[in-house]
Amino acid sequence: MQRSIFLLLLLISTTTFSQDYKGLWKGELQLKDSTLEIRFNVMKQTDNECFGMMIFPEFGPFCDSTLVGETVNLASTDKKIQFNGSLTDDLNLMTGSFKWDGQLYDIDLRRGDKPLYRPQTPKRPYPYISEDVTFENKKDSVQLAGTLTIPKGGGKFPAAIIVSGSLPSDRNGGGYHHEPFNVIADYLTRNGIAVLRYDDRGKNKSTGNFFESTPYDFSKDIAAGIQFLANRKEIDPQKIGIIGDSEGGVVAGISASENKDVDFIVLLGSPGIKLKEVFLQQKETRLKLGDMSKEDYEATKEFHDLTYKLLEQDISLNTVRDSLSSHFEKMKSMNSKKLGNDLSELVVAFAMTAMVSEHNRFNTRCNPADYFEHVTCPVLSLNGDKDLLVISKTNQAAIKAALEKAGNTDYSIIELKGLNHQFQECETGLITEAMNLEQTFSPKALKIINDWILEHTK
């Protein structure tokens, strides 16, 4: 549900390049039990600087990289992942070695699509005030670091706090070199709305641990953010709301159901049905669209069903991890076919961090409607009709029913045509398409959010 991913800007090289590295580099890494596609994207190059990112379309760690002359040198911060390669006589082919978790693999990367530049990402100088800030959730002793953007001019402004989804995100919502939270904040602040966005727990300059925390804990981070904004002379304390992205919409619902200081909430692709059902729908949709084989669907469904069943029990997370590891080894020995990227060792390793956590234990038991049924402040709920992660019709209907049960008469439920879960204009809604789109966030959606907030904070 998180827009996600797994990438980092390449570091700047001090060497003058004699070759052009720009483009999207692709290759396949043959792991023991699966094939992992590698994507390595160089977006901008000058005489002595090269900027880009490395993408693992399924899962992968953050990486630091340098380019020197005709040689690319890449290493993850823990040194478990390393790539060393160089251009061949065919300047569209880079060959080298890839080290992952102690194993060394040969790999070829071929240049493919054009480089991406993300034109919506805001550029300095800004026509507003942008300030790095920190605030504290004293209940959990967590320090949150973020950016507050404030319109120029006198008076007190309405404000919105942006809350991220199901995976730890930085303050910009960074993924595949898109910065959607930065784009949203820029648009709103240019139009008279202050915006606070911050690094999730354990991310960048924020303290705490994301996976050891739950959406309920995150709602307390929001309460601290509201108090921080209320104490700012530029902010109207009676006009502070929340923009919840994906699972962040659930956090917004929890906050608004308990905190009367929340003046409004905006939901972006928010779940409305039980989160376990959302996860199941995601796999069923991929199977229906041919993005997942029947074998992978059945294998991952079996693995995830067992995960949810174990997490629902009152047993330790270590016991859950041991049971899942044993089950995965059994599945590998019984399955004559490769399990593929959808249940590779890399994915399972990630699952042990993200899925087998207090965060996900909360999610397996969570029904967002339980919170939306107590939300009485104004609500705007947006979703795209090509959202394959949080299906618009079922989730929007559940949110609407819950708000009506709360007696809430000030809500707007809007489905936007042609938009995916990332709120990009698209054709298929697949994540592989989203990562290659230039657009970060639909201008149409930005205008709806902006106009609605201004209307409700007159």
Tell me what you see in this structure.
It is globular, with a radius of gyration of 22 Å. Strands 3-2-1-8-7-6-5-4 form an 8-stranded antiparallel beta sheet, with no helix packed on it. It has an 8-stranded mixed beta sheet with strand order 9-10-12-11-13-14-15-16, with helices on both faces. With 458 residues, the chain is of the alpha/beta class. The protein folds into 3 domains: 89 residues; 238 residues, Alpha/Beta hydrolase fold, catalytic domain (Rossmann fold, 3-Layer(aba) Sandwich); 90 residues. The longest helix is centred in the middle third of the chain and has 18 residues. The two termini are 33 Å apart. The N terminus is likely disordered. Helix 2 packs across helix 3, helix 4 packs antiparallel against helix 5 and helix 5 runs antiparallel to helix 6. The chain is built from 12 helices and 16 strands.
Describe the structure concisely.
With 458 residues, the protein is an alpha/beta fold. Helices cover 31% and strands 26% of the residues.
Order of strands, main sheet, comes to 3-2-1-8-7-6-5-4
CATH class of the largest domain: Alpha Beta
Strand content: 25-35%
Beta-strand segment tally: 16
**The CATH fourth-level homologous superfamily of the largest domain:** Alpha/Beta hydrolase fold, catalytic domain
CATH architecture of the largest domain: 3-Layer(aba) Sandwich
Rg, rounded, reads: 22 Å
Q: Which overall shape is indicated by the principal axes computed on the Cα atoms?
A: globular
Helix content: 25-40%
The biggest beta sheet, please? Answer: 8 strands, antiparallel
Average predicted confidence as pLDDT: 85
Structural class category: alpha/beta
Helix-strand string: EEEEEEEEEEEHEHEHEHHHHHHEHEHH
Point out poorly predicted stretches.
Answer: 1-16, 57-69
Distance between the termini: 33 Å
Number of helices: 12
CATH topology of the largest domain: Rossmann fold
How many domains make up the coordinates? Answer: 3
